[in-house]
Amino acid sequence: MLDKQAEVLLRKAAEDEVMARFPGAPDGPFGFHIQQAVEKLLKSLLSQLGVEYRTTHDLDYLVSLLESAGEILPQTVITLSRIQRFAVIHRYDDVPEFAALDRPESIETVRLLRAHVEARIAVLSAAP
Fold first, then answer.
1. Stated pTM of the model
2. How many of the other CB atoms lie within 10 Å of CB of 53?
3. Are 53 and 65 in contact (CB under 8 A)?
4. CA 77 – CA 68 distance, rounded (Å)
5. Would you state the pLDDT for residue 89?
6. What pLDDT shows up at residue 90?
7. Interatomic CA distance for residues 16 and 107, integer angstroms
8. Dihedral angle at the C-alpha atoms of 115, 119, 122, 128, nearest 10 degrees?
9. How far apart are CA 108 and CA 71, in angstroms?
10. Which of 94, 103, 104, 105 is nearest to 28 (CA)?
11. What does each C-alpha distance from 121 to 4, 71, 91, 108 come to in angstroms?
């Protein structure tokens, strides 16, 4: 059975993906929505697994919880650690040009993670 929180988080991640694709979005908001999509995808898988997690934007922490639960995440184009900084940076500071995320690579990273998470949730929710 699909966990209700996992379902909500998948839907909210999709909303962040739509916002990240908004034409002309500045680097900060773009990075923020990429980070949020990744965070919600990771949390959705944790929810489906029944793994409790603290309120956080720390992607490394979420990944470590998934790995501890035996999950193997896909190789992504951009490391999730690099995306993590966008959880708060754009709210208070300008994004330095060297720190901006490559847009096609970021969108592909989210796509890869989404495909993996949705496949795992489908398997887990079908299990008796």
1. 0.93
2. 14
3. yes
4. 23
5. 66
6. 61
7. 11
8. -160
9. 20
10. 94
11. 12, 11, 32, 20
**pLDDT, position 103:** 95
What six digits make up the tokens of 112? 């890869």
Give me 75's structure tokens.
């190789």
Q: Which residues of the chain have pLDDT under 50?
A: none
pLDDT at position 104 is: 96
For residue 106, what are the contacts with CB-CB under 8 A and spacing of at least 6?
20, 30, 31, 34, 77, 78, 83
Q: What are phi and psi of 57, to 5 degrees?
A: -110, 5
- 4-126, superfamily in CATH? Nucleotidyltransferases  domain 2 (1.20.120.330)
Tell the residue number behind the tokens 């900060």, with chain if given: 28
* Both tokens assigned to 94: 């300008």
In the numeric block, the tokens 């988080």 are attached to 9
